[in-house]
Amino acid sequence: APLNYDSPQEIAQFLDSFGIAARKRWGQNFLINRGAREKLIDLLCLSPNDHLLEIGPGLGAMTYQAMTHQLAGVTLFEIDPAYQKILREFFSRHPHFQVIDGDVLQTWQPFIAQNNKEISYKILGNLPYNISSAIIQLLAHTPFSIAVLTVQKELAQRLMASPKSKNYSSLSVWSQCNFSIQHHVNLKAGSFYPQPNVDSAIISLTPRQPLQPQLLAILDHLLKSAFAHRRKILRHNWQNLLQGVMLALPQEEFDAILRDQNISYHMRAEEIDSETYLSIAKAIAISLE
Ligand code: SAM
Fold this sequence. Notes:
The chain has twelve helices and nine strands. By secondary structure, the protein is of the alpha/beta class. Strand 2, helix 3 and strand 3 form a beta-alpha-beta unit. Helix 8 crosses helix 12, helix 9 crosses helix 12 (274-288) and helix 11 runs antiparallel to helix 12. It starts with 7 loop residues before the first helix and ends with a helix. Bound molecules: S-adenosylmethionine (SAM).
């Protein structure tokens, strides 16, 4: 390996030799737990036709592990200019390797759009905490076969939450409509250097049937309004629902869709499961066609 990725001392010295330190604002916590890195890569089941996309590679701890496999392509998305340079030095001799510089929230969509629609990516990331859910939302518009991610434990709980639990939110429903989500293992803060204040979890996502943009927009609108005030009933949260993407839907049709799904206006958003929300959104999309 180009660096001893298990050793906080060596990482600190290495950063020091470039006159840099791990930056909190970019969520720079390196995964120093070798077993966890191996687990992440194993979960990807890499094979020679795979094109790997890694979000936030840092100093390349997981990249190195992934590159022990033959791959059709490796693309890294890294915001820190110092790390971009280091990654190129470490890995550029590998064919089909590239680093996309900048904020992944800006660079992801253009990268996906300019590439061959036939490519199906595998995605890897020990995600920076503050933008993890924004990154997961990018994946709804990405062709991929599996994403293996490390996220804050609380985010994993929100993504996987069931109706009526305190973590159940519009993000839970949205994610469950778009992906099958699996929780693999929790990681203590000590698996990282520097140690974050929170525990993490390794999760994987596989896409369900992709939802058309119009359907996604309806689902978004429905969920944002439903969960706007958690303690209030749907009659309150949905009183101004028929605007924006749903402007053209007559009230009677919406009411009929709810009746079909056995949903009453006296229910709260948290009582409805993600499959029912998806069915409602699909019925609305059909009515609007
Ligand atoms: N993958 C490395 C590891 O496991 O040791 C580092 C993971 S660290 C939690 C998060 C990484 O994401 C850092 O390298 C950080 O610079 C990068 N990062 C933070 N915000 C980013 C953004 N908006 N776009 C791209 N990379 C970002």
